[in-house]
Amino acid sequence: MSDLNLAFLSRLSRKNARSGIWRRIALAYALRRHRRQLTRLDGRLLRDIGLSRREAEAEAARPFWDAPGHWYR
Hints:
By secondary structure, the chain is mainly α. It is built from five helices and no strands.
């Protein structure tokens, strides 16, 4: 996501960021970022969190709408 979009999301009020579509957008962006970060971890760090390289890459390849249910509560 570009810096312009990040700036836009950061300017949202807390009320808007927690509700409706803005919350979903923020969660989707966070999930995308977390999954991308998994691919940047080296083997030692992946072992520390109990994942193989293959599992980390599979998680990173999942679409942003395939989020854990607790993210939307």
